[in-house]
């Protein structure tokens, strides 16, 4: 349903006809580690995540799995390996 409170105009699963059903009746601001992520949205009341109502939870146990601004170690390792040299090693 389209949000009419904190992230006005954006689709949200927590928005109900009775209002925002998330804890406290609103989503929470993005945290510092979110800066640079493409899923951030700026509203009059602050900066929010378009995917999670409480971004700090996504960073409690490590990196956010939906972050767009992080490079994975596997992707970084792939760049270092020269496929031609790797095939000669075999
Ligand atoms: S997807 Fe993750 S990193 Fe991106 S804004 Fe949301 S919580 Fe932050």
- What ligand species are in this complex? iron/sulfur cluster
Share of helix, binned:
10-25%
Structural class: alpha+beta
Strand content is: 5-15%
Query: What strand order characterises the main sheet?
Result: 1-2
Question: Helical region count?
Answer: 3
Low-confidence stretches: none
Could you state the order of secondary-structure elements as H and E? EEEEHHH
Q: What value does the average pLDDT take?
A: 88
Determine the N-to-C terminus distance. Answer: 55 Å
The general outline is elongated
Number of strands: 4
Cα Rg: 19 Å
Q: Tell me the number of structural domains.
A: 1
List keywords for this structure.
90 residues, alpha+beta, two-stranded antiparallel sheet, 3 helices, elongated, binds iron/sulfur cluster
Secondary structure elements and their pairing?
Layout: E1 15-16, E2 19-20, E3 40-43, E4 46-49, H1 55-58, H2 73-80, H3 83-89
Antiparallel strand pairs: 1-2, 3-4
The structure holds iron/sulfur cluster (SF4).
InterPro entries: PxxKW_fam (IPR047766)
Structural summary, described in words:
By secondary structure, this protein is of the alpha+beta class. It has one domain (15-89). It is 21% helix and 13% strand. It has helices at 55-58, 73-80, 83-89, and strands at 15-16, 19-20, 40-43, 46-49. A two-stranded antiparallel ribbon has the order 1-2. A two-stranded antiparallel sheet has the order 3-4. β3 and β4 (46-49) form a beta hairpin. The N and C termini lie far apart (55 Å). The structure holds iron/sulfur cluster. Residues 30, 34, 37, 39-40, 49, 51-52, 55, 58, 64, 66-67 line the site of iron/sulfur cluster.
């Amino acid at each position: 349903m389209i949000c009419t409170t904190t992230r006005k105009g954006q689709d949200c699963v927590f928005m109900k006809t009775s209002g925002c059903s998330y804890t406290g009746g609103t989503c929470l601001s993005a945290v510092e580690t979110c800066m640079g992520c493409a899923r951030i949205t700026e509203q009059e009341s602050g900066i929010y995540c378009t995917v999670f109502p409480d971004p700090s939870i996504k960073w409690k146990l490590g990196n956010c799995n939906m972050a767009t601004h992080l490079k994975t170690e596997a992707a970084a390792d792939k760049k270092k390996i020269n496929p031609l040299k790797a095939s000669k090693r075999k």
